[in-house]
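Priority: low. Protein: Gustatory receptor. Input follows.
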Amino acid sequence: MLRIRLEENPEHNYYLYVKDCKTIKENKLKFCLYLYRSIADLVDLISPELQVSEPMESLGYVIMNLMQISLLLFSPFVIVDFYSAEVEKMRLFLFHRLIDQDNSEDKEDIEMFLRYTDIRTFKYRIFRVIPINMFLPLEMINICINYVIVLINFTHLY
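Result:
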């Protein structure tokens, strides 16, 4: 939605919105930068807590419980991955606008937005090794399999 708002009417560098029954005209790039920063701060707060206190009764319950836990664990990473793709689309649009823009004030705003999104990216890694994106479950399975193979080799169970 933020990308769509940024891309609409590229010839106008202002954004009109209503707040407290008043129409407010604001610089579009600064407004989108503020929204981007707010969304980035909210994404930092995502930390689902898991509590399994019910007894296991059947195989169906175990499967449903595992699906619920995996959904709670990995849905923030999928959302962050989609959000990162939208940010890249916004950056591409702003690069095109930077090339076409003649106004120096608008160029400064675009460059500030691009620098901010470059510094505060959504490409996180766990221990600088495991990328946090929608492929995190596969990476975790891969790590578990590798450790099982290493343990089998060290204990000579084969």
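Residues 152 and 158 are 7 Å apart (CA to CA). The radius of gyration is 23 Å.
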